[in-house]
Amino acid sequence: MSSARISRRGFLGSAALGGVALAAPSALLGCKKGGSDTIQLGAILGLSGEDASLGNESKDGISMALDEINAAGGVRGKKIAIAFEDTKLDPQLASEKIQKLIDRDKCLVVLGDAGSTPTLSARNYAEKAKVPLVTPSATNVEVTKDAKWVFRVCFTDATQGAAAAKFAREGLKADKAAIIYATGNKYSEGLQAIFKREFEARGGKVVKIATYQMGETNIVSFLTEIKDADPQFIFAPVYPSDLSKIGPTKQQIGLKAPLMGTDGWDGPATRQKGVIETLEGSYFTNLFAADQPGSKAKDFVEAHKKRFGGRVPSSLTACGYDALKLVVDAISRAKEITPDAIRDALEATKGFSGVTGTFDIDAGHNATKPVPVMKITAGDFKYDSMVTL
In whole angstroms, how far apart are CA 8 and each of 117, 118, 139, 214, 273? Predict the structure, then answer.
């Protein structure tokens, strides 16, 4: 999921604000404040701005994991402390904030960002400083490409784009697709290119591609061009802030072809009244499915509901939770508590059992797992199927 806004997913709703309030005690633990009985970590997340739900929902998951870990005694006899820094999903801020956490606060590992554009910026300093950076949900392929110190608990857009193409051809039985995406958003740009390549390789045809600049408020003309091309569905790898314009506009002009999206859709702006109704019958690939049959995430889902007033966790929350759990698992296996040793343990991860699935960290530092497909039904996200490549 980008420009100065981000490369991976709306608005900061009351639920997200509630999550910040609950997480506040953990957030106040700065890296400098710990003693020898504390392992200091940092997190860079977009906690304010148009797509702040990305960072705040990720923080909810990290905070849940943090409280569980410390309540159980921490790791290696030490408690975990995390300093949170707000990047506003801005790449320049992400670069500045990770440098602050590493150089000033001496954090051993940094979590974040939730999106690809700020994470790509932050990765440069992580590589230079030789400190592990573990992103919960930045899916752009370049995030971990040729990186020694950057890891992720999600799959890449190469996997997600290919899975979306496979589902479109085999699940939807579609031959003709249109694409709409945001120029300047690395998440959106990368996914549309991968999807197009994979869809056409499987015998499908892309009959129209419409692209708009990040921040565009009027997309009537772009969707009208798509309507004239008469596709069977429209692939839209965008964030909730853009989807909240696409859905209602599509309905307004009478464009009947359903939408298909990606994990960037999973945010509160997508569920807003006046938006969710326009997306009925649409599908999207996701990083997590709370209602997946046989899922190991049942206890996590129930704990989240109890903590956040009955709210079902998003994929961002689940990935944030898994990101910290993975780091602590690596710390428990590391030869010593240093960035180098933790990096080696992260790289050696096999069979990690997380709420988003059981996965290995592959040679490219990415989690290997199948891709859930969600369907928007009766105003809710429902598990539809699983795509394995």
Answer: 8, 10, 7, 13, 22
d(CA 317, CA 309): 15
- Give tens-digit pLDDT for 277-295: 999 999 999 999 999 887 7
Beta bridge partners of 150: 133
Stretch(es) of the chain classified as CATH 3.40.50.2300:
14-156+298-370, 158-288+372-387
Angle between helices 315-333 and 298-307 (to 10 degrees): 110
Per residue in 205-248, pLDDT tens?
A: 999 999 999 888 899 999 999 999 999 999 999 988 899 999 99
**CA neighbours closer than 13 Å in the CB half-sphere of residue 268:** 21
**Predicted structure pTM score:** 0.84
Give dist(CA 111, CA 173) in Å, integer. Answer: 39
Could you say which architecture CATH assigns to the domain 14-156+298-370?
A: 3-Layer(aba) Sandwich (3.40)
CATH for the stretch 158-288+372-387: 3.40.50.2300
Do residues 58 and 321 touch, judged by C-beta distance below 8 A?
no
Q: 238 burial class (0-12, 13-18, 19+ CB within 10 angstroms)?
A: buried
